[in-house]
Amino acid sequence: MHELVIFDCDGVLVDSEVISNEVLARMLTREGVPTTLREARRDYQGLLLADIRSHAEAKLGRSLPSGWLAEYEHERAEAFRHGLEPVAGAAEAVRRVKAAGLKVCVASQGALKKTRMTLGLTGLRDLFPPDALFSAHDVPRPKPDPALFQHAARYMDAKPSACVVIEDTPSGVMAAVAAGMRTIGYAADSDERALRNAGAEIVRSLDGLPKLLGLLPV
Questions:
Q1: In this predicted model, what pLDDT tens digit does every residue of 9-22 receive, in sequence order?
Q2: pLDDT tens digits, one per residue of 66-96
Q3: 4-15+85-212 is classed CATH 3.40.50.80
């Protein structure tokens, strides 16, 4: 039934969302847009960096400095190097999926450079083939458009109906559903109701993913 499991990266494989949004909240506050971690996650999580900048400038009423995004990426990378961890159970879940003979890949809203860095820092990079990382920057429209997941499935030579997507944001779930793929919402640190409303089945721990996929114990 299943041929390919497509993992989102941030919040599904690497525990990066709090770190990213702490940096974002701090930098926005410095620029005159007082922002808490909760507000940053509510308003910006899952957006492309260009969209984050546009939303922030709309609140600020002026343009951010020309080098602001580059500074954000630098501060975020430094924070990742000092505190980024894999999501609990992520490595074992990927190994179980692969042991069952299914293909795996990563499809992230972020740039490939960031995905490679975060997977490398958390020891997950070697679990995925070198050509099995995909970014919304590769397609015309990001999530919630289905283009990224459709692109990943084509490249991995899998039918959409035989793909399973693991996501932690409603926009990602909507993209996967629109692509005609089975969609599992990882709800350990996300709004479970929002994931369900977007069309996902729910798993609260990645330890439960193999069972949900019907994989035999190894």
A1: 999 999 999 999 99
A2: 999 999 999 999 999 999 999 999 999 999 9
A3: no
- Domain made up of 17-83: CATH architecture: Orthogonal Bundle (1.10)
Question: How is 53-66 classified by DSSP, letter by letter?
Answer: HHHHHHHHTSPPPT
> DSSP letter at 106?
E
**Residue 163 three-state SS:** strand
Q: Determine the residue type at 204.
A: R
Query: Which residues is 135 bridged to in the sheet?
Result: 108
Which amino acid makes up residue 111?
A
Which is nearest to 113 in space by CA: 71, 156, 77?
77
Take residue 143 and report the two structure tokens written for it: 């999530």
Residues of the chain with CATH 3.40.50.1000: 4-15+85-212
Question: ∠ CA(183), CA(143), CA(31), 5° rounding?
Answer: 130
Consecutive H or E run containing 123: none
CA separation for the pair 107, 92 (Å, rounded): 19
